[in-house]
Amino acid sequence: MAYKLQLIWVNIEFGGVMKKITLFLAILSVAVLVYGIVTTKEITKTFEVNDKTGLIIDNLNGSIEISGWDKDFVDVVVTKKTKHGSIALENVDIIMTQKDDITLETKHLKRNPKVTVIYEVHVPKKMLLKNIKSSNGSITIKDAGKTDIVRTSNGTIKITNCAGKINVNTSNGSITAEDINGSVI
C-alpha cells in the first residue's frame, strides 16, 4: 500500500499566517512519514526450570536466537516489529506457557499481518531444546545443551557448541553446525 502526499505551498502575505501554514504542513508531513517508520513492541518473561524442563518455540515470520548460560532460569525477550503502524502489532499474539516444558508460540490473528517477530532466549546450558522452528527467519543456537529438532523455511541455521542427535532442516538457506557433541542429520 503506497501513499502519495502532495504539498501545495501557498504564499500568503499576511503577518504570521505563513508561519502557521508552514508549521501545519511540516507537522502533516511528519505524520505521514511516521506511517513508514518501524514500530516495535517488546515482551519479556522469565521462567523457572528444573532438569526435566524442555523448550519448544514455534515462530512465524521471524528469527530465533538461543544462547546458553550458567543460570538456572530461562529469560525470553520477544520483539514484534512492523512498518505498518502500531495497530498492526495487535495482529500477532505471543503465547508463552509452561507446563512440563516451556512453549513459546507466535499466533497470527489476521492473514498476512505484516509483522516480524524476533525471539531472543537465554537458557541453562543443560536444558533440552526439543523443537525449535521458524518460517521466514534464521535460527541461531549457541552454547546450549541437548538439541533435538531445528527447522526453518527461508532462513539459515547456525548451531554452535551444542549436544545431542540434532535433526536440522531448512528449505531455503544454509546450515552450519560446529563443535557438536553428538550427531547432526
Question: What this model shows, in words?
Answer:
The protein is mostly beta strands. 10% of the residues lie in helices and 50% in strands. The strands form two sheets. The chain has a seven-stranded mixed beta sheet, with no helix packed on it. The longest helix has 18 residues. The radius of gyration is 23 Å and the shape is elongated. The N terminus is likely disordered.
Secondary-structure element string: HEEEEEEEEEEEEEE
- Helical stretch count? 1
Q: What would the principal axes of the Cα set say about the shape?
A: elongated
Query: How many beta-strand segments?
Result: 14
Identify the quaternary structure here.
single chain
Estimate what percentage of residues fall within beta strands: over 45%
Relative helix content: under 10%
Structural class: mainly beta
Using the CA coordinates, give the radius of gyration: 23 Å
Biggest sheet descriptor: 7 strands, mixed
Q: What is the arithmetic mean of pLDDT?
A: 87
Query: What's the end-to-end separation, in Å?
Result: 42 Å
Strand order in the largest sheet:
1-4-7-3-9-11-13
* Uncertain parts: 1-10
